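Forwarding these from the shared drive since the link keeps breaking.
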Amino acid sequence: MASPWSLYVKILWLFPLAVITAMGANTRVQWDARLKLSHQEMKNGSAVYWGGGTSGGIQVLLLDEDHGRLLVGGKDHIHMLSSDSVDLPWNTVSWPAADEAVQRCLIIGKSLHDDCANFVRLLQAVNDTHVYVCGTGAFRPQCGLLRVGLGEAFSLLPHTVTAGRGKCPYSPKEPFAAHLSDGDIYAGTSVDFMGINAAIFRTSIGAGGRHLRTEAYDHNWLNVPQFVASFAIAETHNAADDKIYFFFREAAVEAEPWDKKIYSRVARVCKNDMGGRRSLINRWTTFLKARLVCSVLGPSGVHTHFDELEDVFVMETKDPQNAVIYGLFRTSSSLLAGSAVCAFSMASIRASFNGPFAHQDSPDHRWVEFKGRIPYPRPGACPSETYDALHESTEDFPDEVVNFMRRHQLMWEAVLPVGGRPVFTRVNVSYLLTSLLVDRLDIEGRTTDVLFLGTDDGKVLKVMASTTEEILLEELSVFQSGVAIRQMKISSKKQQLYVSSEGGVAQLSFHRCHLYADCSECRLSGDPYCAWDGQTCSPHFVSGRRSSRGHDPAYGESWSRCPITDDFLGDEKVMYGMEGNASFLECFHRSPQAALSWTLQRRNERHHLPVSKDERLVRTSGGLLLQRLQLADDGIYTCSSGEGKYVRIVSRFRLHVIPASVLHPTQGPPASTQGLAATWPVSTKERKVAERYCEQLWFRDKRRQHKVFTFKLKHGSSKARVRRNQLPHATI
């Protein structure tokens, strides 16, 4: 009888398979990228690089499209690069931590290289001439103003440098989110060097202002949060209703005590929140939070959740109140590594905040939907004329409302993604996604979103967003393997991406149209930034709108606009094979989405027929293997690559099968070829064919011997160098 432990181990082994099977049954096929470029190929012209200066430690980017500059926050320095070409640094400001702070940082056991320096974590534009900047200050946060002038001029204003507690984290490794709006910094960060006391703060960048924060050490408000992003999003046409949204992940208080789950959250506060008068003094009185769900439904009705939020991008629309929120998530299970991107509408987020509240009578009770009376004005609403002109400030809220807010921050209904599923998933691959950008296109009156995704091994993926199929266009190795992408910025105006790692910045275009050789490849690429102009595959961009000569992958058959030809433009390869031996006909896919097919035109026949299924014939992704050749295998083999309804010839082979009797005339033909032996007389012509076959084998053997000899020569010389560098043996 199996022990409980062995059964437990078997369950652990089977769990990932069950999850993968469940996901695979209801998810789309994970196609490989159509275009892949190695890091060396990127360095050879597909990207521009800047090496990070002398200190590295890059944490944050700020793109100023109007003035053509990119600010880079690193270790003890702030760099200004040209957004036209990042390999041309304009200027650098040195901003090291104070010596006293460095010594104190070392005393508490931190690393001089990794911790005890001023790592710039925040760069936010105040106006056209000033940027607000914050750094860790060797575990003593500090903030100040940068003056940015025309061109390359910029400098730090020393008299503006103040303590950055509540605006910037102590550690360069702590997740952090902040947004500057109307002179106030809204920040999700900790206020102690151990990173325990985390909260959402509002502080002013100047003198005065009303400072607010979430309640300290209350897990119902925030439970070990890891902040990701923060944005200001309009609620109505009345500015008094404007809110600041925070996106983060935290330990779920509503989960069972033994189930240590991480949930992703969206929270919001009113910009005009002034705290309470008698309760919640200097605390948020409008703070609410809801769960963000990004999951895939399996065939058994069980969801596979991507619970850990990693990055957020707000795609603005023509209506500023109804942006699309893109979230990048990871699985929290150590048994199944994967990432997913989900899109959320502001309507669904507001519906959750306007829905029922979650309630817990005591720590020993379960969380349930609150069924009691909700006080007026509704908790979480901003004081404005939109709802009630009598309440001009949160200090005017009735005690009943403030007391309700003290106990009810969590909403009962979660926020579900658009379409009920992710727009892109990646599971069981060698990388995880780290960062997210989105570019929206208008193709023939139809909006299409293109995702740019950074990975933890230096890649950038370009993806067409879709809830019906996954379209992975490109996989670009921007940095070396093992170098994580930290942050990305996008310039839709210039069609450029700016990608940072800890040690440098790369700049790359949205498209690589020149790599598609002909019309069909250009069309089949599915790249919305490329179009065939009649001669080349070229970038196509007209005032934010793609015209009809561009192509939309959703329309499917854009390749039909290309000239149709059945001619094979390549060289027909002549190959020889000996009866009874094996031959391999090499043929590769035109793209990962294509399928190979083979036809055969036998000798003295006029038609190409599909290669029949035979246990001797093995189809692989790289070609066709013919085992135990027979005389009937002689003929012209054509390999075609098909994608949808489009088919093109990739390669063609003329295979000559030489009878065994030609090389061994004393032996009779094999039993399997008794009926065909008469068609292969041992003539002068056939002997010449045999001689060519032997000549091919002879050259192949010579090349193999040359490679072995070269290897031995190199290996022997390296051993000789080792011997020359060794110390002489002591004499006896």
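-- next protein --
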Amino acid sequence: MDALFSAVLGELAARCLSFLVSKYWATPGLSEEEILRRLEWALLRVAVTVEEADGRFITNAAMLRQLHSLRQKMHRGYYLLDKFRYLNCGDGRRKVKHHHHNRSLAMSSASSNPGKHSPPSARLPSTELKLMLDSVLSVVADMHEFVAFLKGYPRMCRQPYSMHLLLEKCMFGRHAEMERTVHFLLQREPPGECNLGVLPIVGQGKVGKTTFVEHVCYDVRVRDHFSQIVFLSGNNKLRTEKLSTLKDGGIIKHKNDTLNEEKILVIVELDGEDGIDDDDAEWRSLFAAARSILPSGSKIIITGRSEQIMNFGTTQALRLNFLSREACWYFFKVLVFGSTSPQDHPKLASLAVKIFEEYYSHTDMYGDFIGPFSNSKNIAGMLRARFSKEHWRNILACVKTNGQKNLRPYCTDAQNIRMENEHYYISRLSNISQFVQVDKHHRIGFDHDQVPKITIGEVMYGRITPKGRFEVVWWTSHLPPYYSYIASCEIVDSDCTHMRKRFSNKRKSMS
């Protein structure tokens, strides 16, 4: 009885405290700077909770959904906070660190001279900021139950890293999807005739399906559960593969001989846009053979772009989407500034926001080439290489030029641009009159001996100026399977790009 009374009393006290905190922080009549300060405080509490949750093995689906909601709210809040703090402040001229002192001076000045206008830091906040603050405060007020349940989940064994190193080495923004997939793999299927679990994973090209599955396979829980992990790729190869060799075919990613019980995880990766038909007898016989050949407790993950593969799942399909703009900004900001606070460099932070906004306003034009994620990481790497306003302004000018250069004069629809262009142009930092023409078609390097020695950064900075067509390493993933994305390029002058566009347009009109 005493324990029940203490629990009820504690719940009432927590709710009263949350109510008083939310009521105090939502006081009307605040300036924009005060709203920004309180929003930052509330977001910091959410960020601490999210980081703590990321370090634990959460298996409850409802907890994962709530964590996903917290993460979305955190990303949106920081995106809006940084836009108002840096993008609207004239290259960061507002002194964020001394806003308490400035606000006190403004209030004393206004009280001594009522007719004098308030400074910009004391102007009324926008409705968007107010709504975001109220929304985040509501999340903070309801978060104590989530935190209480969170303590019941075991911690992950990992070394303490800074946020910069953590995001460089870990998959960003896929925690809920990761835990759901691992939970499916470890869950024992109910006994029956069709007890082979199949999880379809669907997503657009370059959304990160292969990297995601590879990350799942590297999880220690998965490696300790399965005696063997087999990877099969390619539609044609799978269709001609002998059904009896499914168990031992493909690439063996992992083998654990210490387990007493044999359980195999088979990864099936489909190529391109090709899918499988509902009445495809070959595919149905393939999975039927898998059920008879694979030992009990085995699982299959099938990935592809076509939604037709969803029909072969024994559980709800997992859909991987591109990260939201707000989540990409959060990732981009951490990659650029690392452990340094952007508030210590307000002018650079303002330029970073402008570069990000400019790039993501044109990302649909060339997202199909390499993918928006790798492009943003390249830009972040160039910014991080030199903390200089002049250098960052040059990058901003290049990003703007790239957007204008790849926009067809007669086409206003970004989707049409993506379909028609076979290449796109990026301006060189060393010579703004020269562009690197990048082909749409690229290849992925598995063997480091086959990877070119030239990187796109060396070409951009003018350290290397190859003649004719050449291949460059566009981006190398820091995550398994550590692919190197290789593009075919050629350096051309600005006049040549106009001539090639006119010739390409004329050829399209004649065809």
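The longest helix spans residues 61-87. The chain has a mean pLDDT of 76.

- D.
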